[in-house]
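Typical record was shown:
=====
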Amino acid sequence: MTSETHSAAIQAFFDPQTSTVSYLVTDPATKRSAIIDPVLDFDAATARVSTASADAILAAAQEQGVTIAWILETHAHADHLSAAHYLREKTGADVGIGARITQVQRLFAPMFGASDVSADGREFDRLWEDDATFRIGDLSARVLHTPGHTPACVTYVIGDAAFVGDTMFMPDYGTARADFPGGDAATLYRSIRRILDLPTETRVFVGHDYLPAGRALPAWESTVAEQRAQNVHVRDGVSEAEFVERRTARDSTLKAPALILPSLQVNIRAGELPPEEAGQRYLRLPVNALGRGAA
């Protein structure tokens, strides 16, 4: 196969605490890799952080003899802290995220009094515009701007695989919520249709798996064909109006993610903890700053 279409070697790392799936994506020919959506472990009761999950990815990379070329975020996560900063320090790899992260920074930096946050994205090394292209060794990668869950969500199409973050999940679970600040259900529908317009054999890798009723084990890989035929929220034949009505109704029943406040203030900083104050770092909990569902 040509370098434009050959398959990446993909290893998934599932974090049961946050139901997050991180990925080590490798070009087998050159042994160049990207890490997608890495988790920084956080214990809310004690406010202790750990790099165990990120270190597991680094250990796998070392065992396989690969070089980390990129650390890629699909969006500023509201359900887990990112390990991007830690991994950048350990590997020297650049951190990339969708260019609309600036909008997310402007939304949330004032909430946390985060005067150190630039609002121009400089905390990240690469801000991807829609249809930007780059390479992981001989693998061709393309960035699709797929907003709706957040304004900055992107999908990475790498070889024959698409890493969709939280935009959509496994077919039996459906799609992301759209009630966060800057989210929009109609926009989400259009973004998902863009993903579903990829070749039907494209492998789809999701950012979470919440184990819907009837399934005992986590899963994270499907195909465009399977999503189009089986996704419970947006299979072929579901109109935009139907999706928006159902998505909005479901979102009205959801609580805010348990780690939304610590996550956002770290993730708009590319995974770096807030700056020290008198030798200590603090995560802020702004009182009554979020609505019931974070909308």
Notes: Helices lie at 52-64, 84-91, 101-108, 185-196, 224-230, 240-251, 260-267. The two ends are 46 Å apart (CA to CA).
